[in-house]
Design a protein that fits this description.
The chain has a domain of 48 residues. With 72 residues, it is mainly α. The protein has three helices and no strands. The protein starts with a helix and ends with a helix.
Length: 72
Amino acid sequence: MLLGDIFGVDGVIVVVILLVLVFGGSAIPKLARNLGSAKNEFEKGLKESKPADPTSADTPPAPRPSDTDTPD
């Protein structure tokens, strides 16, 4: 458990109690659901922005530095 490694078990319990006090018991599932959907939308956007096939990209490959060097 990542939070358990950082804060320890006592720290995680304190954080959970503070969340319940601040947001209320019924708001925490809504908050978790919204965070999950935001994460899914973010990952979906990352997948859509990447080209499916790198050889089908419209831009030509960048020249290697050894190809552009000219002898003095």
